[in-house]
Amino acid sequence: MALSNHAAILRTLSLSASTRTLGAALLLLGATPAFAQDTNPAPAPADQSTGDEAALVVTGIRASLTSSANIKRNNVTIVDSVSSEDIGKLPDVSIADSLARIPGVTAQRLEGRDQRLSIRGLGPDFSTTLLNGREQVTVGDNRGVEYDQYPSEFFKNVNVYKSADASLIAAGIAGTVDLRMLRPLDQKKDTFVVSARGQMNEKDKLNPDGTRYGYKASATYVGKFANDTLGIALGVSAQSTPTQIERYAAWGFPSEPAAGGNLFLGGAKPYVQSNLLKRYGGVATVEWAPSDNFHSTLDVLYSNFKETQHLRGIEFGTAPTWGSNGVIAPGYKVENGLVTDATISNLVNVQRNDLNERKAENISIGWNNDFKLSDTIHFNVDASWSRATRTDFLLETYSGTGYNSTGAKDTVHITQNSDGTYDIVPTLDYSNTSVIRLTDPRGWGYNGTTAVVQAGFLNRPDFTDDLKSLRASFKGEIAGSVLSGWEVGGNYSRREKQSKYTSYFLCPKGGGTNCTVASGTPTSVAVPADAVLSESVSLDYLGVPKMLTVDPMKIYGLLNSVFDNRPDSLVRDNTVTEDVITGYAKLTVDGEVGGKALKGSLGLQVVHTKQGGDGQIASLLNGVVTISPVSASTSYTNFLPSASFSLELEPNFYIKLGAAQTMVRPRLDQERVTQAVSIDISKIGMGSLPQNSPFSSNGGNANLRPYQSTNIDISFEKYLGNSGGYLALTGFFKHLTDFVDPNNSVLYDFTPLLAALTPAQQAIVRGQNAQFGLVSSPANTGNGDILGLEATASLPFTVFSSALDGFGVFASGTYVDSKIRYGNSATPITLPGQSKWVATATAYYEKGGFQARATYRWRDSFLAELAGLSANPEYRLGRAEGVLDAQIGYEFKSGPLAGLSILAQAKNITDQPFVTTEATDKRLVREYQRYGRDYYLGLTYKF
Hints:
about 950 residues, single chain, five-stranded mixed β-sheet
């Protein structure tokens, strides 16, 4: 195939597929009188804490809830917060745990930890995370921030903005999470705090190279100097967090002809997994206010973590219709069309000893300077830089009885359990090294043209995310008018995310080239005795007494590595860049309507974006891989008006209204320019339908536009005097447009690629008009609506009786309904991460230094996102779940132990598993993960 012709067609593909013009959407505001407040409802980067917030005495859960209530009350936008109970102490084990208690926020557990946050039914792709008001990069694959990268000890409060404000740059359409570090000049006195906490999982280590014990330690210093004009806050943190996971994953449930056409377990992959996350980090804040006319703040955060995962298990292929070659014995049992008990002989199974290592580093620097130009005008300049790097080492090693089903066969008995999993009891002894060898048991290895001996596989993705930003704004006051203030500003940011993927086939040494079978590569090799560990792994929770347990790194050293140059592997490398210029203007007013105080703001953002990408486009034909570099870019402008009002209808009773047009950019992997072109000569002569064309292509779309949302929010908030309690009822509506369909396909004329075929093949394709194939790439074809309601009650029991001082509850419930459709489809999709019903309740007691509390979080079923083959996302229905956490502690207020506090915590007391099922039949469990309970015991000393 000629490279020049190929490059031309591929560049044309990248520039023309799935593109349409997006007009700027402008929200038309009604003729409501314009009134606003004189404080910024959405703090600009590194803006100093308000006086109300700084005056709080942050000790204990009650003070934390009071601080959060004050932030909510004093803000004209709709916001919920979590505040630290004391310096270096958010009220939960992690930031994600704390956020999951906020109304309308849910967390999906990944690897046993709360990670993937959804706000108002929209997953992490639809929200943004800020650090001190600044957009952040992530160590994840896309935009969604992984909160493990931030030590929770370093933050004073975490705000979740649910309605928009013109001065809130890089806001999301679901919400905006703003992590706020403490400000040393706001603290009343110099403080030094050290803490240490031990962790134990109730499960003993499931792998011999794992552990059930962990720790967390931190130290924080806050001091003021030079007559309280210079403040310094320093913090360091280190942790080692273990997780033990019993995993079960079903391949699927085909209709099995050999079992009367009933649904049959297609295969399963039971694993035991031991994780260890090690992280250390540091933070520094320098705050300088030498005069009333100048205020400067420098923030630096650094985090480094390494996660090691040991996974061992067996892949059982069971259904004959899916190529297991198994024989189902008579007498199998069927319940409502599903085989629940059967014996299958003649099976070849694949034993796995895997190792995943993930190393990541994150640094964030921000410098804010505020100049008072006159009594009424301030000029603010903020510069920031954040960078994240991540490298994965994902090693798989395989063993079995022989290459490509040539070894001894197994007989397996399967029985469905009450939880939907299957017990799988084999006959073979999978720990016997005289039977088990390092090989490719089912002959999976294929390099695109010929069979290879795949005794293992290695993926090594590498990510770099870099973001630079510069912001400037003027802010002024207006005297003698209901227009109390104004603000204008601009922000420039440049983000570049590089994604690199390399993968390798692993095969036995001793001959052959490129691991191919035809070249004489050994098809198997004996398991060396020095690679076998002294302790054997058991999968007895599903019926497997023991399996071969080896050191995967020693096995890796015994195998050859051959680069995987299949087109689908090559085209994953890409770079996405985004240059964004944002200008905004805002009016704040303060007045009365009918004798009632009304505050609010009116504003407009104008966002100009230039996005582009670099990568490769590749195809494979007759064993020849053709690669063509490709680049693409586009630019667009969005207009985002916003309005927020807060009316104090009665003393301590507020009605808040927000209306805004917001946007959020697509996933970065969807913006990639890369395409994998396929030329499948086996389809020649199959007809003129596009799906039968020998030509197709699959990849990203560099011309994607942001998701758009028109939002209406209304909140009724009743504050219970000075108790820190409140009741709130919030309704929200979002009309979404330009929703990205990740599976979009368009018809494309591949005529220029006909030259790759023989004349006879060309004649057949032309005769059937089959040169028209499908290009699969994401496109902005979707639209729909989200409607929801949030109810919150923060009730210190002193509002009922002083005899109940110290007792209280914080509870919330959320209902979300959505209807999103792609293109002209009449069938709505399910939003990833959305639960229709969510509820959270915390009951607490705190008095005289003693504290105790329990939190229960429940969510309805939801569409869960999981990492699939080659780390590509997969979606399955997550089963409803409830998680109970509790803690008890004591702080010595006087005597020789004054300043010392003791805390005991228990997490996942309900031992709630994470379960996914087929959406059409909840009996068909696809993923089942049990993490066990975690226990913590900690000491904190405050000097």
